[in-house]
Amino acid sequence: MRRTAPIIILTLICALLVSMAAAVALGPSVISFGSLFTSDNAWMILWEIRLPRVITAALVGCGLAVAGTAMQALFRNPMADPYIIGTSSGGALGATLAIVLFAGTGRTVLAFAGAMIATFTVYFIARRGGKIPVETLLLSGVALATLLSALLSFLMYTAGRSLHQIMFWLMGGFWNISWNDVIVALLILIGGAGIYLFARDLNILALNEEDATHLGVNVERAKQILLALSAFVTGIAVAVAGSIGFIGLITPHVMRLIVGPDHRFLFPAAALAGAILLVWADALTRTFTSDMPVGILTACFGAPFFIYLLRSRMKA
After folding, report:
1. CA-CA distance, 166 to 100, in Å (whole number)?
2. Does residue 140 contact residue 259 with C-beta atoms inside 8 Å?
3. Domains contained in the chain, number
4. Residue 160 DSSP class
5. Backbone angles phi, psi at 197, to 5 degrees
6. Assign residue 245 a region: left if phi > 0, alpha if psi is -120 to 50, beta otherwise?
7. What are the transmembrane regions (predicted)?
8. Euclidean distance between CA atoms 210 and 315, whole angstroms
9. Could you tell me if 160 and 233 are in contact, meaning their C-beta atoms sit under 8 angstroms apart?
10. Taking Cα atoms as reference points, which of 11, 40, 80, 51 lies closest to residue 250?
């Protein structure tokens, strides 16, 4: 632990509050504090559109960052991420099934089920002798994502009138967010809190599994619970906002450099940073690009970061 970690976390909390306030005000029409008292339209835009959208973006960014941090620690693999290893694709397939077959009913449940199945599938394929090699993890994730993409394409081919809704939803964004979506997204906090309870176990697992067992950690049980919680958080995020990539890859790496590897501080720091990142990504796309899907923007800066990590690891 670095002595400055608590101060950094407090700074990130303040930065998130400022970011959310700024994001609420920004948009095609800027909302000033005074206009809330002089214009009914300004208050309606703030309460019905901007505020639930910003809160949901913060919760989704928080959830993806926490899930990414947990997966990187669990697999002891810096390339692990809900988007890269297929968890998001599984959630997207489940949610798309709900849209096509049930007009969106049960989208959250099916997204969670899809994310869970995809995560455990990659885990069992990539696991060799208790370890998860980088190459095996990436190839397993790519192979599974390709299969899930084929199934998604088939569903889109047979979707009929739902095709347009599925296309925009898969790109990732917060266009039609309401307070009902905020309530669903709050489940991310429950899953994130469950993951945080394993911060000490993950610190011990960073040594190796044998030492962790000697120190009283039930390794296999911890892995299964953490995978389930990570899939739960990712499934909720995908059900609410669609497929948004690389948040869970970037923020854990950056925050690990700043606050250190102690997961008691890394989890909250990554969660806050992920929330800030996605709040600003949504605000920028909403303000300057006519509400372009936010998943496009995160992929634009996330993919080069992933390539940089891969090249750095190859050199090492």
Report:
1. 9
2. no
3. 1
4. G
5. -60, -20
6. beta
7. 49-71, 83-103, 109-126, 138-157, 177-199, 225-250, 265-285, 292-310
8. 29
9. no
10. 80
Residue 16 lies in a domain: no
Q: Is position 27 within any domain? A: no
In a domain, residue 288? The reply is yes
Assigned domain for 35 exists: no
96 residue type, one letter:
T
Burial of 86 (0-12, 13-18, 19+ CB in 10 A): buried
Among 120, 98, 95, residue whose Cα is nearest residue 231: 120
**CATH number, domain with residue 183:** 1.10.3470.10
The contacts of residue 291 (CB under 8 Å, 6+ apart) are 173, 175, 285
- pLDDT digits (tens), the chain, 316 positions: 567 889 999 999 999 999 999 999 887 766 665 666 566 677 788 888 899 999 999 999 999 999 999 988 888 877 778 877 888 889 889 989 988 888 778 888 898 899 889 988 988 888 877 666 767 877 888 899 889 989 998 988 888 777 877 887 788 889 889 999 999 999 999 999 999 999 999 999 888 778 888 888 888 888 889 988 998 999 899 889 988 888 988 899 899 989 999 999 999 999 999 999 999 999 999 888 888 889 888 888 888 887 887 777 666 5
Q: Per-residue DSSP letters for 184-220?
A: HHTHHHHHHHHHHTTHHHHHHHTT-HHHHHHTT--HH
Residue type, 268: P
CA count, 13 A, side-chain hemisphere, 220: 3
Domain range for 223 is: 54-305
Residues belonging to the chain: 316
| CA distance linking residue 228 with residue 271, whole number of Å | 18
Q: How far apart are CA 36 and CA 24, in angstroms?
A: 12
> Tokens representing 209?
């599994």
Structure token digits, residue 234? 């990712």
Residues 93-110 as b/e (b if ≥16 CB within 10 A, e otherwise) read bbbbbbbbeeeeebbbeb
